[in-house]
Amino acid sequence: MMWKIVRWDRIETEPIFERHLGVHELLVMLAPPKPHCAFGTACDSRPEGQERGPDICSWCKNMSFDALYKRAEAQADTRLLKRLIDAWMHQLERDNSERIRRGWPCLCASKDPEYRFHAWRRDFNPKDSRLCGTVRHRGQLCARCYRTAQEQECTWLAEFDGDRYGFPCVFEDHRLRRPVDANWKIGPLDAQGHPDPNWEKDPRRHGRCERARFKNQLCQKCFNRMCEIRGFGRYFDTEWGMLRGGMGV
What we know:
Elements: H1 16-20, H2 23-30, E1 36-37, E2 51-52, H3 58-61, H4 65-73, H5 78-102, H6 119-123, H7 143-151, E3 160-161, E4 164-165, E5 167-168, H8 182-186, H9 203-206, E6 211-212, H10 220-226, H11 232-235
Parallel strand pairs: 1-2
Antiparallel strand pairs: 3-4, 5-6
Helix pairs in contact: 4-5
């Protein structure tokens, strides 16, 4: 058997890119991928829109579902776009459920499925491609969304206590720990001068309060516990469960 000896010192080396590719092709390979979106030119992340792609871009995913479905209705491929929007919604639902189950940081309120049909969420468009950050409390806006809402002067921020949707129940509001607040916290007294045991919140029996919709308001759990107690209307509005007169802050 004969063996062929290869002389490595005589092999000519030739840059493969120079042999097969021109300068233009090299630049194309090195350039970052062009942004794309399933909405194509209807995507308003840029004045001219984006190249059509297989998925919804991050700009559009920051919009409300209400706005996305309306935009899809105006396109020729409505059914495809709605399937993509549905898939995005289900992805957020799974992510949210897993975070709750594992005790992980929460989704920004603008991504939380719990708020997708709220009026404030339907009206809010961050107009930004950046992803939302996670938050400590459910119903809280991430730093980017809260800052953007302030810059856009969104009137719905009146429904938020800072960056968090809703307000603490009056029994958990740290601003209502003044000496004068002892009156409504004890509540009406019976003929023997004793308060009703179901009036003041007992964390061991009543659990944690929920968020209230308005400032100076009882949460739904406390309202349900207290509203039938005689004398309730002396301290709280009987329809909304809000502190009367000047008792709030």
